[in-house]
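Box S2. Input/output pair 1.
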Amino acid sequence: MGQSYRVAILGATGAVGTELLALLEERNFPLSELKLLASPRSAGKKLKFKGEELTIEAVSESAFEGMDFVLASAGGSTSKAWADAIVKAGAVMVDNSSAFRMDPQVPLVVPEVNPAAAQNHQGIIANPNCTTILMCVALQPLHDIQPIRRIVVSTYQSASGAGARAMEEVKQQTQAILNGETPPTESFPYPLAFNLFPHNTTINDQGYCEEEMKMVNETRKIMSVPDLKVTATCIRVPVLRAHAESINLEFDQPFDLAAARQAIAKAPGAELLEDWEKNYFPMPIDASGKDDVLVGRIRQDISNPNGLELWLCGDQIRKGAALNAVQIAELVAQNNWLERPAASA
């Protein structure tokens, strides 16, 4: 990238916001200006960037003026409240919330999977749900060889998906239980330490929670297969920041195991991790802090000759959120896609 860009992080004090800040530095994103925006209660606080302290500003319409990108990670209601102002200011909003993901006018992008979709933005590009991002990175290289007909996925989701407070709460719960005390439950409805439970988002009439339906609908949109058969069961587990997923895939015909492993090993954003002799496969402790989605235990489904089983782990805060957002901004900048396509007559 030959030029530099003016970037604002909306929600700079949250778990994803601070990771966005770290990634902009780590990846040396070409910046001419960086603004840190948050609620008025956080205004005046300071965060370090490249050895300097940046002061957090209270979000306002004027704060977006002159920005090229706004990386938003402050929740759906905040994104909806400021989207018009961001677009009006001429910035591209990369939104980490679910507010615009299923809007047909808003691209939903995983750069390793559907990069060209980012070109067709009207000022907003949606960052998918964390579990969906991780799964699509692993599945697209297989889908490119042989179309996937059905996905059955069970997720094992870390506390980080509920934010920094939830991560701290799990630590407090662990200590409380070890001390024989009642664990605090504010971020979650039940204790997560030494426990697990189905994802506690709203359940629909079919018995699927919001998190599960995000995986169903977002995967179809990202992979451009509107009728793809997807079913998901999402579980919250006592892990701090990396999600795991058990995935069963069905194809029209058998999928060669060697070809599947080779495809995963070569895929951008994925890393094949298998040691069958040691029974060693991806674990959250391996994935935490890493950019790549770790994929392993690829095997034939013994109940279905056309089926494959695989297991993955990925850092929810990085590739599941902040990294994907920064990669979207890099993609738009590298291809000079800041300008919005002209409306058709």
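Box S3. Input/output pair 2.
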Amino acid sequence: MSFPVRAITLDLDDTLWPFAPIAARIEQVLDDWLHAHAPRTAARFPAEAMRTLRERVFDENAHLLHDLTALRRMTLERALRESGDDAALAEPAWEVFYAARNEVECYPDSIDALRRIAARVPVAALTNGNADLERIGLSEHFAFRLTSRDHGKAKPSPCIFHAACARLDCDHGDVLHVGDHIEMDVAGAARAGLRSCWINREGRTWAHPEVTPDLQFDTLAALADWLDAQAAHDHDRTDAA
């Protein structure tokens, strides 16, 4: 398929890097810190119990599902309070949590592909997560980062896609959204009027009753190749004219 792309919005977790190793690291680092600084909390809320508490906090505060930072902080504060530890420890615990959250290991193709893509068109990070591109060291490749916390609504709400398009100064149909999640990324982008690209690294079968992605690749490098081919085609067509 061929169509013009003036800008790209790009998901982060499970698109540029896998999130599962990050989640495991966060649990371990936080548990170690709690054992050292809040032992009653560590005893009452080992990793599995902390996950259960987190799910309860999320369920009780569904109006904040766009703000993972707030919900994570609330979970830490409640764990400390319910255990009888000092709730003020939530702040240093959060710093430990957030440092581990930003220790990412990108997929092997991601950084070079991102560099190639950003050389072609402006790229905006569009995420429901709370990764810090400055800490990670990838901010130079992005025009900006728009998070659901910043915007007040999470993907797949059309308004967050539209807000990104407005900042990119592009019509919705000229922007390609790239991500791994069938509903949050592909369906959300399609309903908002953007083009969509599904990064399907795990060989899943597409299953959605309403939409299909405009593009589908198993790596970000393949998208970079597609953009290069598009540019070459446009150049040849211009020369022929």
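Caption for Box S3: Residues 182 and 208 are 8 Å apart (CA to CA). The domain at 20-101 is CATH 1.20.120.1600 (Four Helix Bundle (Hemerythrin (Met), subunit A)).
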